[in-house]
Design goal:
The structure is a single chain. It contains four helices and 33 strands. With 634 residues, the chain is mostly beta strands. The chain has one domain: Maltoporin, Chain A (Beta Barrel), CATH 2.40.170. The protein has a 22-stranded antiparallel beta barrel. The longest helix is centred in the N-terminal third of the chain and has 11 residues. The N terminus is likely disordered.
Length: 634
């Protein structure tokens, strides 16, 4: 495994947005077979899931990564402060093994790598659904840890709109504007979000962290500035009472410094990225059948300036070439759902497409993708429900089946039990197969990673209290691990295997005086099964314990909230010889409606002003920060 700073550098080109979109089923669109509609994702019934409604955060300044920390089973791998790259890990799986979907369409970085969450505009989203487990049958190859669904804002029956302006510490600024209104025989919605930060926060680090009681030295973060603009628009038109055609487009452009970890600061490295997507969907729904046709395409580009495998260089000099990588994707999909009596539905989906990549350090490559999926939803007497599913994916020469079976039992109005099993695979990304850059060597002989999982859980509803809990066990083999490759490179090989088990708990409570409390806890036991001197050690960068708690009060005049996030110490390498210290972060805020729809908010993050905080790859995190927000919604 390469040193942490090389791993962090390798992640940068593959952690950028390659946004794609069409339109997914939403709970308002699901067809109720019997009883209440599913509370999680309609694509993955009876699985472990968390629905995050973004309206609950009001005028708070959040990123997608910040919001996800409210859910159990989630870890965020960040590369510094605001505006810097951040990727998602579900149940200890890597970022490449955790899918992200925008309106039902998988997103990925250039070359098929993990998605950079910092490129997604949170103010243009309605909600998120976090689905956990090996869910290849429900979401496609690659969902070995789970899948995150991002659902954009939708138009309402009446014209609505909103505006948000904020300014805060470290030169941070945000402006967001969105509107929705009836249009013709349907509706239209559009929004834009602008973000900027100087990123020049103070931090403290140890020069010799391996020594006991090593002193901390203060410094100021440099080359951590970031600018980003994102837009989203959707137009939907009713062709008949049962048929709708909708078009969605989303684009993002960003420019940010790459400051490097505190142990290897890079003052001259920068990254520019652009992405655009467009999706079209025709959908019809009536009492006993649903069908949809959709197609989408996307293009994205990333340019790295002043970047080298070790250290940086001055852009424009002969020994400092720019690294350019471009990727595109085009796909089409047909899906149908039909009632088989009063208590059973059958669903089928077929899709096909092609993805391409080319750039400075990777030739022009393309591969074809084809998939066929089916699922049954069967309601049985006594409150039982079964959901068998299977999906066949073929990614160029790699092919595999992803079967799954989930079940639920509504024992009483108070208690519901669920269980599930799934098996799937993740084909190597184009970057893993063909990227050759500096210290990275390609490996076109890589095989798919494979995993299976088993989990069980329960939901308890007691008046104004809802408690969700569950246990899971998963096993991985043929994991792709970067190994030293003489004389001075690293190369990916299928040599990893692991066992990851854990527990997840979430509680939501409505309290007197309009107070709302929520808490989530995750326990993770991630064990390396690779034979050798690393066997039975804990996998690095997987916190054994993570706890989040939040209390909020909101009425038509005042808004207050406070939250705490605790992450336990975790190994920093495969040998357990270095650890990321435990972290506790406290945040709070308050708002008041000053006139009509106008609200003014003040929020403080990292109340303890802990300037020693670092992310997993030793990138410093900001100390105390203050933001002033003005917002209005009509």
């Amino acid at each position: 495994m390469p040193p942490s700073r090389l791993v962090a550098w390798c992640l940068l080109p593959s952690a950028l947005l390659a946004a794609t979109s069409g339109r997914a089923q939403e709970p308002g669109e699901t067809i109720e077979v019997r009883g209440e509609p599913p509370q999680g994702s309609p694509r993955a019934p009876a699985t472990a899931g968390t629905v995050i409604e973004l309206d609950q955060f009001g005028g708070e300044i959040r990123s997608v990564a910040d919001v996800l920390l409210t859910s159990p089973g989630v870890s965020i791998h960040a590369l510094g402060g605001p505006g810097q790259a951040a990727t998602l890990s579900l149940r200890g799986a890597t970022a490449d093994e955790s899918l992200v979907l925008l309106d039902g369409i998988p997103l990925q970085g250039p070359g098929g790598g993990s998605l950079d969450l910092a490129t997604i505009p949170v103010t243009l989203l309605d909600r998120m659904v976090v689905n956990r487990g090996v869910l290849g049958a429900q979401f496609g190859a690659g969902a070995l840890g789970g899948a995150l669904e991002l659902l954009p804002r939708r138009a309402r029956e009446m014209a609505t709109g909103g505006v948000l302006l904020s300014t805060g510490s470290f030169g941070t600024f945000r402006a967001a504007l969105d509107g929705a209104a009836p249009a013709g025989a349907g509706s239209a919605v559009a929004g834009v979000q602008l973000d900027r930060t100087a990123g020049d926060f103070d931090y403290a680090r140890q020069v010799t962290p391996g020594l006991p009681d090593a002193p901390y030295y203060g410094s100021t973060r440099q080359n951590a500035d970031s600018k980003r603009a994102s837009v989203l628009a959707r137009l939907a038109q009713s062709l008949t009472p049962a048929t709708e055609l909708d078009f969605l487009t989303q684009a993002s452009i960003g420019d940010r410094g790459l400051p490097g970890p505190s142990s290897a600061i890079t003052l001259h490295s920068r990254e520019l990225d652009q992405s655009i997507l467009a999706g079209l969907r025709l959908r019809s729904a009536n009492h006993d059948e649903v069908w949809a046709l959709r197609a989408w395409t996307r293009f994205d580009r990333v340019e790295l300036q002043g970047v080298q495998p070790f250290g940086d260089c001055i852009d424009g000099t002969p020994d400092c070439p720019r690294i350019d990588q471009r990727a595109s994707d085009v796909r089409a999909e047909a899906e149908g759902r039909v009632a088989m009596g009063e208590a059973q539905w059958l669903s089928a989906t077929v899709s096909a497409g092609q993805e391409r990549v080319h750039g400075t350090n990777i030739g022009a490559y393309q591969r074809n993708l084809v998939s066929l999926a089916g699922r049954g939803d069967l309601t049985l007497p006594g409150g039982f429900a079964l959901h068998p599913a299977v999906r066949l994916d073929k990614v160029e020469s790699d092919a595999g089946a992803s079967p799954a079976l989930t079940a639920s039992w509504r024992a009483t109005q108070v208690l519901e039990l669920r269980t599930g099993w799934g098996l799937s695979f993740r084909p190597p990304t184009l970057n893993e197969l063909y990227l050759q850059s500096g210290g990275i060597a390609p490996n076109p002989d890589l095989r798919p990673e494979r995993a299976w999982s088993l989990d069980a859980g329960a939901t308890l509803r007691l008046g104004d209290t809802t408690i969700n809990g569950g246990l899971f066990w998963s096993q991985y083999r043929d994991l792709i691990v970067y190994e030293l490759f003489p004389p001075a490179k690293v190369k990916p090989f299928n040599v990893g295997s692991a066992r990851i088990a854990g527990a997840e708990l979430q509680a939501l409570v409505k309290l007197p005086f309009r107070l709302f409390a929520q808490a989530s806890y995750s326990w993770l036991n991630a064990v390396n099964l690779r034979p050798g001197d690393q066997q039975d050690n804990q996998l690095p960068y997987r916190p054994p314990h993570r706890l989040f708690a939040r209390v909020a009060r909101r009425d038509d005049r005042f808004d207050t909230w406070a939250e705490a996030s605790f992450t336990s110490a975790m190994p920093r390498n495969f040998f357990g010889s270095a650890y990321v210290p435990a972290q506790l972060v406290l945040n709070a805020g308050a708002g008041i409606r000053v006139a009509g729809p106008l609200w003014i908010h003040l929020e403080v993050r990292n109340l303890l002003d802990d300037q020693t905080l670092e992310d997993l790859f030793q990138y410093p995190l900001p100390g105390r920060s203050i933001a002033l927000i003005a917002r209005a919604r009509l």
